Amino acid sequence: MDTNIKVDGVSEGRVEAGKYNNDRLGRTLDRLLAAERNNLLAELSAQTIVVHQLETQSIHNDSTSIRFLGAYECADPKAVKMTHGYHKDHRPDCKQILFGLNVTADGHVPLSYQTDDGNQADVTPPIPNWQLST
Prior knowledge:
Helix content: 25-40%
Oligomer: single chain
Order of helices and strands: EEHHEEEEH
Structural class: alpha+beta
Number of strands: 6
Distance between the termini: 46 Å
Number of domains: 1
Radius of gyration: 19 Å
Number of helices: 3
């Protein structure tokens, strides 16, 4: 099966669909992991805001706990620490981290995010996360 691919409105011509397979996806994910993801998110967000003419005067923030099952080893002392804590989904047997996300009010385009150690209350304003969006 062939597909006509367009990038930035310019036709790349017909591309064989078989070109996009699990191996290619794996290589792409490896490159994404090695990339500077903060800069990638900033560039994607900025382009989306421009293209769709989104407003940025009002920013929405939300946080949630993300739960993990199983054993995880972490050699990096600066990494976010998965710990037991209060779970919104009532799973005290699981470890968690806290994830906060800032998005545009119209369009819900991600602007910045922050992860914190588990067992953190999300009842206080996430001022460091807000400062990332300014």
